[in-house]
Write a structure and sequence with these properties.
5-stranded antiparallel β-sheet, 196 residues, alpha+beta, two-stranded parallel ribbon, 26% helix
Amino acid sequence: MILPIVAYGDPVLRKVGSPIDADYPELEKLIANMKETMYNASGVGLAAPQIGKAIRVFLIDASPFADDEDLSEKESNVLKDFNRVFINPQIIKEEGEEWIFNEGCLSIPDVREDVLRKEKITIEYEDENFKKHTEVLDGLAARVFQHEYDHIEGILFTDKLSTLKKRIIKKKLENISKGKIKADYRMRFPNIKKGK
C-alpha cells in the first residue's frame, strides 16, 4: 500500500526514533508498504519517520545511482546491489574527507542543496530478520545511509546548510509545510487545517 510521505514541518520528522525488536507489530507489512511508497515516489531511500513512525527503521535502494557514468566500475557495482532494510542502525565510525553532493528529500520536494558528509562510515544494523551486520560503506552508499540515518535521529539535510542557504530556502520550506506545492506522490502536510 502506498503511504503518504510526511512533509517538512511535521513534528515526527524531528523525533529521535525508538529502537524496535522482532515483536514490532506487522513489521513485514510496514516494510513492504515503505518499499512500495519509496518506489512510487522514485526515491532511493525512505525512513520510518517519513511515513509518520518515530522508529529506527529505514530502507535504501541505491541501484538508480549505479548508471551514473561518473562512477568507477567498483562503486557502480556496489550501488547496483545496495538494496537493504536497516533496523536499529548505528554509525560506529566516520572517517575520510568531507565531500559535497547535491541532496534532496522526499519530505522536502523541489529543494536540492549541496551537503558535506564524510566519505567512509562503519555501521552496525539488523536486517528484517533481526540478523546483526557490521559493514564499511563509502562513496554514495555511505552518503545515502547517512541521509536516512539522520532521519531516525530527527535531522534533515537542510539542517546541514549554511545560515545563508537556510535563509534563501526559508520561503520554499514554509510553502511545503503549508501544502503549497505539487509533488508527484501522496504527501501529508502538517499545517493544513481540516475542512479547507
